[in-house]
User: Fold these one by one.
Assistant:
Number 1:
Amino acid sequence: MRIGPEEFRIKIGSTSELRYMLGKELRELIIAMKMWIEAKTANIAVETEMDKMRLKDFTKHVEGQGLNMSDDGSSWPDDFEEDWE
């Protein structure tokens, strides 16, 4: 009875079998990644639309309270400037 490296070798089949298995696994992985990217893209689009609706609702609420939420920053008082006058 001889014990050596020959006794511990694992037989995995031919290289063409291994190449086929790896190719199949890689194809499945690529398909799964593509599906994940598509789902994530759709999720981001929905979240963006929801954020736009929330912003419109917030702006409407704040303006209803008497604050002006326009994009023009000149309508806001400059506290720093008022301190120096």
Number 2:
Amino acid sequence: MYNLYKLKMKRKYYTKKKRILYGLGWFGISFVVGFIFQSFNWIILSYIAYGFGALSLYTGFFSTNDPNPPQPGEFTPEDFDNPADYADNIYRVLKGTKKNLLNLKIRNNGKLTKKNILNYFKDFDTDFKNAMDKTLEEQAKENSLQYVITPELDPFCIQIFLMHLPEKFEIEIWSKIGGKYEGFIACIKSDDENISVNLKSNSLPEPSNNATKKLNKILLKNKDVLDDELISKPWKK
């Protein structure tokens, strides 16, 4: 019974397209209902209907998703093929993965090892696929894990850098080479609350295209997302 309750009460994930579609739909329905109420001279009820419609319209265009990931099999990659949804999920995955790994560190008496992280992936509740020909165990021996979360981040690769364990780690999300968002890189460090975007990398030298610049612009609306090009780097001078 408890599991059934959790299933019924689980918040649903909406893509940007769906939020706008539902917002417009409820706005239209509310406007018609409000007009009917007004024709009967039910003024207060008409105001309530119009208010609900305006709120639905605002929510559809300006709301964002909660931290819950989409359910496996619920969507296809095409459902997320827009900068707003990618920005939403990049932010969620970077913050969520860091939080999960830090919690794992706390549960293991302040130590985080490669073995801990590999066990974390065994219980991963999101659809993901290995981005390399090597197994995750083989990758871990080389101090890095690469994987793709599908469908919500299908054009991107997530990489966790393990070379500084057990003290700290880094998580990057970057666009697959030749992809629509070529040149995109975002990073968060275990000892920093901020996400950095617009990074440059010798291993991914492709310049940012227009789609990538738009994606960065959306991400930078978050107060804890920083433009790496604007961060002072005295060691490079």
Number 3:
Amino acid sequence: METMKTTKFVATLWVCEWYGHDNDTWSKTVKEIIGKVWQDMAEKVFWDTGIYVSAWVTDSNMVYSQNWGCPEWWEKVAEISWTRNPEFCKDVEKWKQAVIDVLKLSKDELKQTTSQVEFSDVDMVYIK
């Protein structure tokens, strides 16, 4: 078993365009909406950079002060994450920039004012 040193990202994206909403009901889940946007924006970045940023998208909730507009039962968000596979993308800095580019495009497509991403060093075993 060969362990590789690599990098993981975790990011968050929202669906609602404004604060003070009541988590409107959509015909799709948050992860379906954000997953499709991420897929489309990752394709754009791929054509510019040659790096495709795959992602694992899960439904989640963001909790913040109701005085700042948080809905009573929290804001529906998606958590997006993935681990860089060094066999497919050797340059960690280019991969990080591609992640940031996809996140920025997705944020703008979803009409969000902010987002954030965390990068961390991890050990990975790639099983073939």
